[in-house]
């Protein structure tokens, strides 16, 4: 039976195939390469899977930013923290707040308190903005109870929002952009995500 792990004829090293070059595949390949011959298989034309390092313009030089690790912290990712420490990968603390800029900057706000919410003074005069705020308060009040509703298992976020009378401003200007940022996807794909995700 071929399990994918065989002994090489010379030196008795195991030959191991690793499928996928995301963070798990790359970590496994790196660790296993110390004692085995490893072949890494990847269908994409780059390594990294979900993660993707891009150069963001900085004040003095470009800064490499890994777009796959949108949320990274010591508490939730202890093994990744240990790997970064072992590889001497520097990390910096970041602000985990949320901000949205839509329509080329025509509508902007942030979730960092009242000053951020009203950072664009014209929002005060927009009924769409106030309907969004109203539904933000409603949704975050109702959300914990939604997790316990068995009849909503398997229901998509988009289907739930369509049936629950939420304003387009809440859906399009807040919930979908925030979900897309957290899940590293597009706002339109967020509608397909399970409500309970």
Task: Describe the protein.
The structure is a single chain. β6 and β7 form a beta hairpin. With 197 residues, the protein is an alpha+beta fold. α4 crosses α6. It has helices at 23-32, 78-86, 113-117, 127-146, 157-163, 168-183, 187-190, and strands spanning 5-7, 14-19, 36-41, 53-56, 63-66, 99-102, 107-110. The protein folds into three domains: 1-50, no CATH class; 52-96, no CATH class; 99-190, no CATH class. The protein contains seven helices and seven strands; from the N terminus they run ββαβββαββααααα. 36% of the residues lie in helices and 16% in strands.
List the helices and strands and how they pair.
Layout: E1 5-7, E2 14-19, H1 23-32, E3 36-41, E4 53-56, E5 63-66, H2 78-86, E6 99-102, E7 107-110, H3 113-117, H4 127-146, H5 157-163, H6 168-183, H7 187-190
Parallel strand pairs: 2-3
Antiparallel strand pairs: 1-2, 4-5, 6-7
Helix pairs in contact: 4-6
Summarize the structure in short.
The protein is of the alpha+beta class and 197 residues long. It contains seven helices and seven strands.
The helix-strand sequence is EEHEEEHEEHHHHH
- Estimate the global geometry from the Cα principal axes: globular
Q: What's the β-strand tally?
A: 7
Structural class: alpha+beta
Q: Any low-confidence stretches, pLDDT <50, length ≥5? A: 1-6
Query: Mean pLDDT score, rounded?
Result: 87
Compute the gyration radius: what is it? Answer: 22 Å
């Amino acid at each position: 039976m071929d399990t994918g792990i065989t002994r090489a004829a010379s030196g008795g090293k195991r030959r191991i195939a690793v499928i996928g070059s995301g963070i798990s595949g790359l970590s496994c390949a790196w660790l296993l390469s110390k004692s085995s011959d490893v072949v890494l298989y990847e269908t994409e034309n780059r390594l990294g899977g979900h993660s993707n390092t891009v150069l963001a313009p900085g004040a003095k030089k470009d800064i490499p930013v890994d777009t796959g690790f949108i949320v990274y912290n010591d508490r939730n990712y202890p093994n990744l923290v240990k790997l970064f420490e072992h590889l001497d990968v520097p990390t910096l603390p970041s602000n985990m707040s949320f901000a949205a800029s839509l329509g080329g900057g025509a509508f902007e706000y942030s979730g960092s308190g009242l000053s951020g919410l009203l950072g664009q003074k014209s929002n005060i005069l927009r009924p769409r903005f106030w309907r969004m705020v109203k539904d933000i308060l409603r949704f975050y009040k109702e959300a914990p109870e939604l997790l316990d509703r068995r009849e909503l298992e398997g229901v998509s976020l988009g289907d739930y929002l369509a049936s629950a009378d939420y304003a387009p401003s809440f859906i399009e200007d807040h919930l979908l952009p925030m979900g897309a940022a957290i899940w590293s996807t597009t706002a339109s794909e967020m509608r397909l995500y399970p409500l309970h995700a």
